Amino acid sequence: MQVDALNGAGCYRVFVDTMSGSLEHHPELDKLLDQIRPGDTLVVWRLDRLGRKWDRCVDIGVPAVEPLIATLRGDSLDRAAAAEALVQIGAPAVEPLVAALKDPEKRVRDAAAATLERMGVPRDQ
Q1: pLDDT tens for residues 87-111?
Q2: In a domain, 68, yes or no
Q3: Please, are residues 37 and 60 in contact by the beta-carbon 8 Å criterion?
Q4: Domain range for residue 101?
Q5: For residue 37, what is the enclosing H or E element?
Q6: Does some domain include residue 95?
């Protein structure tokens, strides 16, 4: 189902790890991290599919920003971890977080504001 959805979204390369997320080694995720470049678009079924270690999102960098912002919008319990990854990514996350300040949902605006504050971004940004 996940691979079909990604293919249906127009993804031309899909990386699939079929083992438990609790394992340290994810060969396909490692391939993704080796091949992803600035300007690439990362599409994931759900952000938690990157594994249980959110620091992998920091390894991915800029392509992970939009999926992390989407996690702030979702009903996921992982909002705090997504916010932390955005803080670690730093400057490339600022503009999407500023845009999220205009989100219709208050919890998204609050999460974006708190994340920007943790990043030390002035309120007038």
Answers
A1: 888 888 999 999 999 999 898 899 8
A2: yes
A3: no
A4: 2-119
A5: none
A6: yes
